[in-house]
Amino acid sequence: MKNVTQVSPRAMPPAPPKCPRCGSPDLELRPDSAYLCKKCFYTTKPRLSTSLLQSWTHSFFNIEDEGPPSEELVFGGKLAGAGGVLFLLALGLAIGPFQIAGVLGRILAPTAPSELAFIGGVTVVAVLGLVCLFAGYTMSRGDPKAWRAILPVGLIGLILGIVGPGGAFGILGGGIAAIGGYIGREV
Predict the structure, then answer these.
(1) Distances from the Cα of 139 to the Cαs of 66, 75, 102, 178, in angstroms?
(2) CA 50 to chain CA centroid, nearest Å
(3) What distance in Å separates the CA atoms of residue 24 and residue 38, rounded to the nearest whole number?
(4) Any idea which fold 1-60 has?
(5) Strands 27-29 and 35-37, how do they pair?
(6) Which strand (E) or helix (H) includes residue 35?
(7) C-beta of residue 95 within 8 angstroms of C-beta of residue 50
(8) Domain coordinates of the chain in residue numbers?
(9) What is the DSSP letter of 64?
(10) pLDDT tens, position by position, 104-132
(11) 3 - beta bridge partners?
(12) CB–CB of 72/183 below 8 Å?
């Protein structure tokens, strides 16, 4: 690290007035902050060590193709997506103009104790459904960390379906999403 010069990334390096070898004023700035003479092709010393920067590039920017995602991630992502669809179906039953009476109505679309609880519950179910859909999509494309969003969302949706908005579809969607997140966690 002793050969690395501390550089402010926004500050331009001072331009030498002429080439140290041939004296030509025609100099070009390279990406590594070294100057290149266009006449004799002499290159000044870079202000930072590019070998140190190149050792970090693979960990930050992986341009290699990692191949297809594992079957567990694809299956877990599809389960999470199905859970998100069930959340959105529960949302449609809760706010739609459908009138379901009797025991089936209490199971599919339970009534909320107040209007505020209804609006808050519907909002939470909508957010949970969208998170399940998007995180399930990213998991099915090979993201091994998507389970961190899917598993808690599935558990919250499961509890919310039991307690209030969402009903049976919320319980089913939360359970399926939690299973999909658990499967994705095992990879």
Answers:
(1) 14, 9, 39, 13
(2) 30
(3) 8
(4) N-terminal domain of TfIIb (2.20.25)
(5) antiparallel
(6) strand 35-37
(7) no
(8) 1-60, 71-185
(9) S
(10) 777 777 777 788 888 888 899 899 999 99
(11) none
(12) yes
Neighbours of 89 (CB within 10 A): 18
49-77 core/surface letters (b: 16 or more CB in 10 A; e: else): eeeeeeeeeeeeeeeeeeeebeeebbbbb
Say which amino acid occupies 187.
V
Quick: pLDDT tens for 128-149: 999 999 999 999 988 888 899 9
Grouped pLDDT means (10 residues each) for the chain, 187 residues: 58 71 87 84 77 51 63 92 92 80 78 83 90 92 89 90 82 92 85
SS3 of residue 62 by DSSP: coil
Give the C-alpha separation, 80 to 64, whole Å.
27
Cβ neighbours of residue 29 under 8 Å, at least 6 residues apart?
12, 13, 15, 35, 36
Q: N- to C-terminal Cα distance for the chain?
A: 37
Which pair of tokens denotes residue 135? 């995180």
Whether 55 and 172 have beta carbons less than 8 Å apart is answered as no
